[in-house]
Design a protein that fits this description.
The protein is 42% helix and 20% strand. The chain is an alpha/beta fold and 234 residues long. It has a single domain, classed as Vaccinia Virus protein VP39 (Rossmann fold, 3-Layer(aba) Sandwich). The relative contact order is 0.16. Bound molecules: S-adenosylmethionine (SAM). The site of S-adenosylmethionine has 18 residues, from helix 3 and helix 7.
Length: 234
């Protein structure tokens, strides 16, 4: 599959955007990303998250007026990284809810485990395009800033839709094809998405759009912070 099939772009954003996905085969790119997150850039995500505010901003999404996980007994943090979203999910989910978290990088899983120190979470090494879970296993899924590591979003979205129960909810966060998004893409060696195109592809994969979410009113006014959408398994 060619890279970025649904977003032919031009201009400064396109010039700035990382070309790693176009320059490597998918298996080579995946190994490169795994090494990237296993290494220093992955170790620094807690620090960079503090500097950019993302550590705190995650808490503005996982709450009653945002992505509400009350009543969800089985929750998945897809591409959990250092456990940033898992931490808020544990805080807001019911006390008897179980959280499953996976990541491609073993080191990120170790970092998440060390951070959370909770028996309610199970950590597993897995690839978003081939999930080791049965159909309809989860009531809610959070997938934060992972889909941009796939040249084609469909295999990942199909897997997320498959493991969600019908009616289950998904919080999807992706790097957007804006200038700031292109700079993030360059830093984290990922692609960007066009908001409208991504919603169409989600629908195609059985994930119905519910609403756009923003970190804050300021982010919404300035259209900053990336694509953050709540979807429902059709
Ligand atoms: C930018 S971090 C986001 C981490 C976390 N979701 C957050 O928002 O803080 C991206 C994470 O996705 C993981 N990742 C990248 N490609 C993946 C894939 N194909 N399957 C599973 N995880 C992947 C990386 O190892 C990394 O931990």
């Amino acid at each position: 599959m060619s890279s970025h099939p649904e977003t032919p772009r031009s201009g400064l954003g396109a010039a700035l955007e990382s070309k790693q996905q176009q320059q490597r085969s998918f298996s080579d790119y995946r190994r490169f990303i795994q090494n990237h997150y296993d290494g220093l850039p992955g170790a620094l995500t807690r620090f960079t998250g503090l500097v950019t505010g993302h550590e705190a901003l995650a808490g503005r999404l996982i709450r009653e007026s945002g992505f509400d996980v009350r009543g969800c007994k089985s929750i998945l943090d897809a591409g959990c990284g250092n456990g940033r979203y898992s931490w808020f999910l544990l805080r807001h989910a019911d006390a008897d809810a179980k959280l499953t978290a996976f990541d491609l990088s073993q080191q990120m899983l170790k970092r998440a485990h060390a951070r959370l120190k909770s028996e309610r979470v199970s950590h597993v090494a897995a690839d978003l395009t081939k999930l080791p879970y049965a159909d309809a296993s989860f009531d809610a899924v959070v997938c934060g800033w992972v889909l941009e590591h796939l040249p084609d979003p469909r295999p990942g979205l199909h897997e997320l839709a498959r493991v969600l129960r019908p009616g289950g909810k998904l919080l999807l966060l992706c790097t957007e094809d804006t200038l700031t998004g292109a700079m993030c893409s360059r830093m984290w060696h990922c692609r960007t998405y066009n908001r409208a195109n991504l919603k169409d592809v989600c629908k195609e994969c059985g994930l119905a759009f519910e609403r756009d979410l923003w970190f804050s009113r300021l982010h919404s006014w300035l259209r900053l912070g990336g694509i953050i959408i709540e979807l429902r398994r059709a």
